Amino acid sequence: VKQLYLINSARVEKSYWQTPWLQPARIRNNLLLGLEQARDTMLPEVHLRRRFKPFVEDELPGLMQPGLCLLAHPQAAALSELALALPITEPALLCIGPEGGFIPYEVEKLGSAGCRPFSLGARIYRVETALPLLLGKLFAG
Fold first, then answer.
1. Intra-chain end-to-end CA distance of the chain, in Å
2. What's the pTM?
3. Which terminus has fewer CB within 10 Å in the chain: N or C?
4. pLDDT in tens, 14-66
5. How far is Cα 17 from Cα 36, in angstroms, rounded to an integer?
6. Domains in the chain, ordered, with CATH?
7. Rounded CA separation 113/125 (Å)
8. Is the backbone peptide bond immediately before 66 cis, with ω within 30 degrees of 0?
9. Who contacts 30 (Cβ-Cβ below 8 Å, separation ≥6)?
10. Beta carbons within 8 Å of 10's beta carbon, 6+ residues apart
């Protein structure tokens, strides 16, 4: 993971953006703890984006070039139906919604931007579970 974007969406609690955990020093300390646990050395860049629509319309298209963008969404078709060669070995974007998922408008905007929706099945996972699960399932080593 080279970059991590935390973006605001309709189901993100307003107080989320006020938490001291989003202070740069706290983010860095937690990333370092994660790297120690994973025995990794590549510190990802973290970007905070408080406005969904400008991010999706203005920034996301540039991040997607030239790669693949996947959108984890519980009401989408199963991952196996996407006809992807797994593990993915080229750069890709992975969008995971907040607790409760993206609202239909957000799913539509992400889809219009080129993100391909998929589902992990009937179970709904918390973000902190979904992220490592998907990284392990989709990407090599």
1. 11
2. 0.88
3. C
4. 999 999 999 999 999 999 999 998 888 899 999 999 999 999 999 999 998 77
5. 26
6. 3-138 (3.40.1280.10)
7. 24
8. yes
9. 21
10. 52, 102, 103, 105, 106
